[in-house]
Each structure stands twice: as structure tokens, then as C-alpha cells.
Amino acid sequence: xxxxxxxxxxxxxxxxxxxxxxxxxxxxxxxxxxxxxxxxxxxxxxxxxxxxxxxxxxxxxxxxxxxxxxxxxxxxxxxxxxxxxxxxxxxxxxxxxxxxxxxxxxxxxx
Amino acid sequence: xxxxxxxxxxxxxxxxxxxxxxxxxxxxxxxxxxxxxxxxxxxxxxxxxxxxxxxxxxxxxxxxxxxxxxxxxxxxxxxxxxxxxxxxxxxxxxxxxxxxxxxxxxxxxxxxxxxxxx
Lengths: 110, 118
What we know:
The complex is a heterodimer.
Chain A: E1 4-5, E2 11-14, E3 19-25, E4 32-38, E5 45-50, E6 54-58, E7 61-66, E8 71-76, E9 85-92, E10 98-100, E11 104-109
Parallel strand pairs in A: 2-11
Antiparallel strand pairs in A: 1-3, 3-8, 4-5, 4-9, 6-7, 7-8, 9-10, 9-11
Chain B: E1 5-7, E2 10-13, E3 19-24, E4 31-37, E5 44-50, E6 53-57, E7 65-68, E8 75-79, E9 88-95, E10 108-109, E11 113-117
Parallel strand pairs in B: 2-11
Antiparallel strand pairs in B: 1-3, 3-8, 4-5, 4-9, 5-6, 7-8, 9-10, 9-11
């Protein structure tokens, strides 16, 4: 079992819709959770971090965490073509090592 | 620009040659990480420095790989006797220790060095 699992996609949504990206993790002791956006050929960019159960909103982005279910998600409201990228889920268990998922490719159709 | 910088951005080398990459972290960041990323995969942890101390090195990293961070500032990653399987994007990231908060693990990536071994 992979430590951080994501659906590889592609996830295709029309412009203006809500994109929902999901991630599950195996280490129940994980404490810090991150979403990175990565455009093709570029490096990952941190867009959201979440540390406690519930929702955290930042602009069009909402991160949701459910530690009991070992599940973290990212919602993108009013999706734009510029949101088309790979979204990486990353999980840290409190030490130095952050584990990244393989990413979900999102395609927003104009 | 006060972000993480990496040099070179691209490197093409022949199999068997040695290569060295440099990373300059965000100035106040005391933690520095190296990752390797191949197509369709997430970044894979290679090694970690806190200040000048290398605290962990991935078991996946062979003896051909070595990293240094003299004086706790910039870092170098050297690959000796390169193999075609070393072709990948090598990413450097940095973070700042904030006691008692998960934000210590918020990592900021440099642009990466794309290595092609022919």
C-alpha cells in the first residue's frame, strides 16, 4: 500500500465548476497536510496547508481534513483554465520526512 | 527574488560522468531538502539538512550520491558515475523551524535541475 494515494486522473471539469481532489494516507500519526500545485515542467508550489480536522478556506481553495478516515481533500471553486495542473498531496508525520502522492492531473475546460 | 534558487536549471551529461548541483535556500530557512522527481510521480525524498547537519539520507540513495551543506547555507548534491536511470528532475526545498507548529514542514521548492544522462 502506498503511503499517500491519489487518483492520477485526469480530472476534467468545465470552467466555473468545483473541482474536488482527494487523497488518503496510511500513517495514522500524520500531523501536517499540504497541497501543492505543479504546472507541467515546473516545480511544486505550496497552495494550502492544514493541521486540524475540518475545513480551511483560502480564496477559491478549501482544504478538508478527516484524520479518523485518514482523508484529505482540496476543493477548487470557480475553476479556471489556469488551474489546469497536477495537484500533489503531501503528508508529514511530525519528523523531517514529508511523503508526496503521485498527484492528480486536473484539466479545466474553457 | 528571495525564493529558493537552483543551478544549473538543465544538465546533459554522458553516462559515467560526475555532476554537481547547487541549491540556495530562502535565507532565513534552516531546513533544506533534496528530492528527485520522475515523470508521473511525486517528489521522492533524497536527503535532509537541519542547518549544516545532514540528518537523514534515503535508503534509496546509492553511494554514488552525496550532499553537503557547509556552514548551513547553500547545499550541493553530487552524483558520481551517472547512469541513465539518474535522469530526473532534482528538486531542492527549504523550510523554517517554528517551534510547536506544523508550519515548520511547509516546504518551498526551487525551480529544479533537470538532468539528462545520455
